[in-house]
Amino acid sequence: MSSEIHQPNDVQQARWAKRDELDKYAFAGVMSESEQELHVERFLDKNYYHRHLANVRANKQKLLKDLEYLEQREQLLLAEGATKRAKT
Fold first, then answer.
1. Residue 86 and residue 2: Cα distance in Å, rounded?
2. How confident is the model at residue 36 (pLDDT cuts 50, 70, 90)?
3. Integer Cα distance of 51 and 57 in angstroms
4. Sign of the C-alpha dihedral, residues 54, 55, 56, 59?
5. Chain-centre distance of CA 48, in angstroms?
6. Residue 2: per-residue pLDDT
7. Using CA atoms, how far apart are residues 62 and 60, in angstroms rounded to an integer?
8. How far is the C-alpha of 85 from the C-alpha of 88, rounded, in Å?
């Protein structure tokens, strides 16, 4: 067994600090200070909903584009399957 003591790096320390902050409030049902600040900022920001709506619409367009590609791919696979079955 190694006698070396593990020293976490800065990234690991930051990750554990964030977890510790969240764990403080996990059972109490209370938001952390950073969550409270975020909600207040969103509430006071008049353009938040417009930006959020724009993000939702952009995501929707991406998903529709992906869906279109997958539907085309499905049709190609079905056509290939039908061609192979017709040959046999």
1. 66
2. confident
3. 10
4. positive
5. 19
6. 62
7. 5
8. 5
- Residue of 22, 44, 17, 48 lying closest to 33 (CA atoms): 22
- 64 vs 57: CA distance, rounded Å: 10
Structure confidence at residue 39 (pLDDT) = 87
User: Phi first, then psi: what are they for 30, rounded to 5°?
Assistant: -100, 140
Task: Phi first, then psi: give them for residue 63, nearest 5 degrees.
Answer: -65, -40
Global pTM reads 0.48
Q: Which two tokens stand for residue 22?
A: 């969240």
CA distance 79 to 85: 10
Give me the sign of the Cα torsion angle 14, 15, 18, 20: negative
The C-alpha atoms of residue 62 and residue 81 are separated, in whole angstroms, by 29
